[in-house]
Design a protein that fits this description.
This protein is an alpha/beta fold. The protein has one domain: Rossmann fold, CATH 3.40.50.1820. It is built from 11 helices and 13 strands. The chain has a 9-stranded mixed β-sheet, with helices on both faces. The radius of gyration is 20 Å and the shape is globular.
């Protein structure tokens, strides 16, 4: 099976990454599986209690949560949905090939790092990270690290970035175009926030047979061509790469490694949620349009379902094989998305959605945040409240557990970045003068 260019996803870009205000409800069948968009047909469901431990006892306080219940839930997601993630490889090394170059008319300092995952520096097992820091910073800078669908050279308008590559026919080839917009890094720099980007395809190809070429191939057992029942899917592989980026950030004295936020959209929104859950070094998560198997409740029959995610013609490779048993048995899952959200407590988490992105169920994300709120309350922190589903553009819920929905569909809009900046400044206690 051949790996196509990673810009061509299984979903149709024209349908999912548009910004018009029309309802993006899509077909009634996907992969032969019915899709419901009628609130009256959602049905009833009962969510597992995140504050009830496996022995039946209730969590009594934040210390009990952190010491006892939280590890239980992490193991559940490892075993049942994402798979276990290996640790830091002993032979990993960093090549800082751009040690600090003025960028954006001198407003920023650009650094570029190639992270070699294995001792073999000739192989494709490496990842480029570009970092921009405010040139006028007098102390280590807070940072937003974005996991991107496109190589760095296509995400940011800066000719000084090393040209990126994408996968084609099982090997990396030069990247020449992107189906996604560029990020205005200067707006972050102007607010005293650094910005970094890595390309998810550097870590693992987004394809059914990507395990043959990506980082998971290094960890396969001898003779295996696919992961075992509890092993990791592609989401965990991309998450693993984010942790390796943090390994570098902790070594850079110009970066405040205690104030690093991560952001990703769609399947990469799922990835940053899982990363924040399993790697507490990340101080904040901004999960955009993460939808089914991300922040949206799976038990809520609306839009995409676990059945769609695990269908062998679609995204089954993104998850641990064990997750597939729940394709038509979601009510038997020992977890749901509210428990994944709860794992971020007490760190700030912003769920960003789109009002017409029905496939990803923005209301399901909001209800999940409400169900996770009791865990944040253990720490005396504020969540989204108990009110009705908000209107698009309502920015009153940028709390520690926050929610923001733009008017539009399945994408990150330019104006969403202004909300991200406000959220970062508020919860990283940056000077807002």
């Amino acid at each position: 099976m051949r790996i196509k260019l990673l810009f061509v996803f299984a979903f149709v870009l024209s349908a999912t990454f548009t910004s018009n205000s029309k309802a993006q409800k899509g077909p009634d069948l996907v992969a032969g599986i019915p899709v419901n968009y009628d609130e009256e047909k959602v049905g009833t469901y009962t969510l597992p209690d995140p504050l009830t431990k496996s022995n039946g006892e209730k969590v009594s306080n934040s210390e009990d949560w952190t010491k006892n219940r939280r590890p239980e839930i992490v193991r559940i997601f490892e075993q049942e949905q994402f798979g276990s993630v290996p640790g830091k490889p002993s032979e990993m090394r960093f090549d800082v090939f751009d040690k600090g170059t003025p960028a954006f008319s001198g407003k920023a300092i650009r650094k570029q790092v190639r992270i070699y995952f294995t001792k073999d520096t000739v192989s494709d097992h490496n990842m480029d990270m570009v970092i921009y820091l405010p040139a006028k910073a007098t102390a280590p800078s807070p940072l937003l690290l974005a996991l991107s669908f496109s190589p760095n050279s296509l995400v940011i308008d800066d000719p000084g970035i090393r040209p990126g590559t994408v996968w084609k026919d099982g090997e990396k080839v030069p990247a020449t175009r992107t189906a996604f917009g560029k990020v205005d890094v200067e707006r972050y720099i102007a607010n005293g926030i650094g910005y970094a980007s890595i390309y998810y395809g550097d870590i693992e190809p987004d394809a059914k047979d990507g395990i043959r070429y990506g980082i998971r191939s290094v960890y396969l057992k001898p003779g295996n061509t696919q992961v075992d029942l509890h092993e990791w899917g592609a989401v965990s592989a991309w998450s693993w790469g984010l942790s390796r980026a943090m390994d570098y950030l902790e070594t850079d004295p110009s970066i405040n490694a205690g104030k690093v936020a991560i952001q990703g959209a769609s399947r990469l929104g799922k990835t940053v949620l899982w990363t924040g859950a399993r790697d507490p070094r990340f101080a904040m998560v901004i999960a955009s349009i993460s939808g089914e198997s991300g922040a949206a409740l799976s038990r809520r029959n609306f839009g995409e379902t676990v059945g769609h995610m695990t269908d062998t013609s679609r995204y089954f490779y993104q998850f641990a094989p064990r997750y597939h048993q729940y394709s038509d048995k979601v009510n038997q899952m020992p977890m749901d998305s509210h428990m994944l959200i709860a794992l971020l407590a007490p760190r700030p988490l912003l769920l960003q959605t789109g009002s017409t992105d029905y496939w990803s169920d923005p209301k399901g994300e909001y209800l999940a945040a409400q169900a996770a709120q009791p865990v944040y309350e253990l720490f005396g922190l504020k969540g989204v409240g108990t009110g009705p589903f908000p209107d698009p553009g309502d920015d009153s819920m940028l709390n520690t557990l926050g929610y923001y929905m733009h008017e539009g569909g399945h994408r990150v809009l330019p104006e969403d970045h202004e909300v991200f900046i406000r959220y970062i400044k508020k919860h990283f206690d940056l000077d807002t003068k």
